[in-house]
Recover the amino acids of this structure.
């Protein structure tokens, strides 16, 4: 009886550690394309990049969408490029577990790159306006203090 109880207790001690490794949370994104007649039918490579490293990529033909699932939650850059097309890069894309993130790319004939950068952890417009207002007040106060005749009795 004691041996059976000991094996049971030891078994319980081992079981929680095997279940303690939680499944990693993942998210998904989809690249949608707006492609005018001159670029329809052209192949485009879509790459998901994190910290300068291409994590995954896939090819599609315009205007078909390209989806990626199983991405770890975090911030990514997504690049769409093709021969004879302007490369489109979206930086600071936040992948969360809530919904599939849909990105919209406008592909055009040409060379070079079009970069769209999203703020990660940025301030709201109201907070930016309040800070700028305080800065303007501080600058005006400094200008008044530095102007000739400031602080002199009349």
């Amino acid at each position: 009886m004691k041996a059976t109880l000991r094996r049971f207790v030891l078994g319980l001690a081992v079981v929680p550690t095997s279940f303690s490794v939680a499944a990693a949370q993942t998210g998904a994104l989809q690249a949608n394309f707006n492609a005018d007649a001159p670029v329809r039918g052209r192949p485009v490579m879509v790459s998901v990049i994190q910290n300068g490293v291409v994590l995954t990529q896939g090819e599609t033909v315009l205007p078909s969408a390209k989806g990626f699932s199983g991405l770890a939650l975090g911030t990514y850059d997504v690049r769409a490029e093709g021969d004879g097309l302007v490369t489109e890069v979206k930086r600071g894309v936040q992948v969360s577990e809530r919904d599939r993130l849909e990105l919209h790319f406008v592909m055009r004939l040409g060379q070079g790159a079009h970069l769209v950068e999203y703020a990660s952890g940025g301030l709201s417009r109201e907070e930016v306006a309040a800070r700028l207002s305080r800065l303007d007040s501080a600058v005006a106060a400094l200008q008044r203090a530095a102007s000739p005749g400031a602080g002199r009795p009349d």
